[in-house]
Design goal:
The complex is a heterodimer of chains A (about 90) and B (about 500).
Chain A (H helix, E strand, L loop, with lengths): L1 H12 L22 H15 L10 H4 L2 H20 L1
Helix pairs in contact in A: 1-2, 1-4
Chain B lengths: L4 H11 L4 E5 L2 E4 H17 L7 E5 L4 H12 L3 E4 L6 H10 L4 E4 L4 H9 L7 E2 L4 H4 L16 E7 L7 E6 H14 L7 E3 L9 H10 L3 E3 L9 H10 L4 E4 L1 H10 L12 E4 L6 H10 L4 E6 L8 E5 L14 E2 L4 E5 L12 E7 L6 E2 L3 H7 E3 L9 E11 L5 E6 L3 E4 L2 E4 H9 L4 E11 L3 E10 L7 H11 L8 E5 L12 H6 L1
Parallel strand pairs in B: 1-10, 3-4, 3-5, 5-6, 9-10, 9-11, 11-12, 12-13, 25-26
Antiparallel strand pairs in B: 1-2, 7-8, 8-18, 13-14, 14-15, 16-17, 17-20, 19-20, 20-21, 22-23, 24-25
Classes of the chains: A mainly alpha (about 90), B alpha/beta (about 500).
Chain lengths: ~90, ~500
């Protein structure tokens, strides 16, 4: 999952080539990779690729601070989805 | 009587010295402190040799320091030029050389960059930090602030130019005050208000929160850096900062309505929401009004060259999710009219024409570009014997049955990206600077949520090894982020019309 998300962010969202290759713990906020526009593109990608729903309340800096943070968030959403299906 | 912008500050400081003028970065600056500190900056500028009419550039993002700096420049009799702190060095270099900035005001985070820029300006008197000891040591006494008259320039705002370089819109004290006086009344500002516009200082929306707040002894609140990325963070901050008046481009409000989780926050202080810069998609405006039903909603219209020249208040039951809000009727002390292609004045609902504006809010012209100025500041076609100049907006409008103007589109190739004006020609000029690019056409792509994005269609010179990454990298050297195309399409050749021109309509239909 880290690779998939890192590839997407590197290919579609990073504009400053000096940031590449992108480390999974690089801050996407301090480096300006994420702004209101790129955040929404990323959300659409995550929703389609991982078949999760990203709610308004989840659009928080903690969930999108880095590739690692995004993966942790997606895993948590996937686990919730599993519980909803089986539980 | 306030006839210079800095009079707004001295009057507010005399009336309500202890009220907060600027809330920024977790602290508040009172009107008396703002007045004192900006006078010290003015003294320091005079000591550097700044003279009335000189340009003082401001390389500080919106903050208490930036406001101290711009009032300091005005009190010194200079005109300030706010710079986009996020713009590439090439573009900033062009702007400071074009306006021959006498001094660049900076803060700790921009001082090094400002020094490099100042080196590129012949005759520059260097960089000044409002926090520097040389400012703190200045005399703390009243000072003759009337070093200008109302027709002198107060500021120059650089905006996209179709021939490839930005052009500087010159605004006098009178031009700005005409808008500020009207705006403070139209938004019903009082000293209790906390006013926020996320627009940076080089964008003319910020004239409202900087000066209209001061006109009403209200507080200008600065959205913290980075907050704008997350709509929920904006909503949370608006709650904690008790924002009562908001002014932004519609795309920020669309994001708030769709992703801000507004019902979770107490935004009961918010009594007025104002938007300008582009058309607010009606379905998102209706959603916003449903989520925040207690605020007034105002649609303001006007290119940088006219300040705001028309306004429309959307009534609570008037939010129709299919029809965009009209731009309305002329502001106080302003007249607008539309001229049809046959030269007649538009007077009946449904007729179309180009919108013209007249009044004391019109700019003085484009800095150093009289020919360009004369293309848009023209003799009033209906008052030719008076030789009065009016502004041609380039915007096509019609009238509705209530006498409100309704925006239809542009008559040229300017588009709006998140409220910023972008001349497609400027983006194409930047692309042509790349040695590997043979041909380029830039088109707007409509985006459901955010209005428009840019798409570049490119053909490469033989043997060049172009990639999306190196084209974007190149663009970022020359253009601010909002002008960099999101989509890059490579082609063998650009489609042509029968007359040999690039077939833009055909590309747009793809």
């Amino acid at each position: 999952m880290e690779t998939v998300i890192n590839d997407y962010v590197s290919r579609e969202l990073v504009q400053d080539q000096a940031l590449l290759p992108l480390a999974d713990d690089t801050s996407l906020l301090e480096t300006g990779v994420l702004d209101s526009l790129s955040l929404l593109r990323l959300v659409v990608f995550l929703e389609e690729r991982f078949r999760i729903g990203v709610g308004d309340a989840d659009l928080l800096p903690d969930n999108f601070a880095s590739v690692n943070a995004i993966c942790a968030y997606v895993r948590a959403r996937e686990a919730q989805k599993q519980e909803a299906t089986h539980g | 009587m306030a006839y210079l912008l800095q009079h707004l500050l001295t009057e507010a400081a005399a009336r309500r010295p202890q009220r907060p003028a600027v809330a920024s970065g977790g602290s508040e600056l009172s009107y008396s402190e703002l007045d004192r500190q900006s006078t010290k900056v003015a003294r320091a500028l005079l000591r550097r040799g700044v003279e009335p009419g000189d340009r003082v550039a401001i390389l500080v993002s919106k903050s208490a320091t930036a406001v101290i700096g711009l009032y300091g420049a005005l009190k010194a009799g200079a005109c300030y030029v706010p710079l986009d702190t996020k713009a590439p060095a090439e573009r900033l270099g062009y702007v400071v050389r074009d306006c021959a900035a006498a001094v660049i005001i900076a803060d700790d985070s921009t001082a090094a960059q400002a020094a490099v820029l100042a080196d590129g300006v012949p005759g520059s008197r260097g960089v000044l930090l409002p926090s520097a000891p040389e400012v703190a040591d200045e005399l703390d006494e009243p000072f003759d602030e009337d070093r200008a008259i109302e027709t002198d320039l107060a500021y120059i705002l650089y905006t996209s130019g179709s021939t490839g370089t930005p052009k500087g819109v010159m605004i006098s004290h009178r031009n700005s005050l005409t808008f500020v006086e009207w705006a403070a009344a139209a938004a019903r500002l009082t000293e209790q208000d906390r006013v926020c516009s996320p627009a940076p200082l080089h964008f003319d929306l910020s004239v409202f929160d900087v000066f209209a707040s001061c006109r009403a002894d209200a507080c200008m609140a600065v959205l913290p850096d980075g907050t704008a990325t997350f709509p929920v963070s904006i909503a949370r901050w608006m709650e904690s900062a008790q924002i009562s008046v908001w002014y932004s481009v519609p795309s920020v409000l669309t994001l708030l309505a769709c992703y801000g989780g507004l019902p979770n926050f107490d935004l009961s202080h918010l009594h007025t929401v104002i938007f300008a810069g582009e058309v607010f998609p009606p379905k998102y405006l209706a959603k916003l009004m449903a989520e925040l039903p207690n605020a007034r909603y105002l649609n303001w219209y006007g290119p940088t060259e006219t300040n705001v020249c028309t306004a429309f208040e959307i009534s609570a039951d008037g939010a129709d999710d299919a029809t965009p809000a009209p731009i309305g009727k002329a502001c106080a002390n302003t007249e607008v009219f539309a001229v049809a292609t046959d030269g007649s004045r538009v007077s009946e609902p449904g007729e179309e024409g180009e919108l013209y504006a007249r009044g004391p809010s019109l700019m003085q012209g484009y800095w150093g570009q009289p020919a360009k100025t004369h293309e848009v500041l023209v003799v009033n076609p209906f008052q030719a014997s008076r030789d009065e100049l009016v502004y041609r907006t380039g915007d096509l409008v019609t009238l509705d049955p209530d006498g409100n103007y309704v925006y239809i589109g542009r008559r040229d190739s300017m588009v709006k990206i998140r409220g910023y004006r972008v001349e497609l020609g400027e983006v194409e000029t930047a692309l042509y600077r790349h040695p590997g690019i043979k041909e380029a056409a830039v088109l707007p792509v409509s985006d459901e949520l955010l209005g428009s994005r840019l798409r570049a269609v490119i053909t490469a010179n033989q043997g060049s090894d172009l990639t999306r990454e190196n084209v974007m990298d190149h663009c970022r050297q020359w253009l601010p982020g909002y002008m960099v195309p999101d989509v890059i399409d490579f082609r063998e050749a650009l489609p042509r019309t029968s007359t040999g021109k690039v077939d833009r309509a055909g590309l747009a239909r793809e």
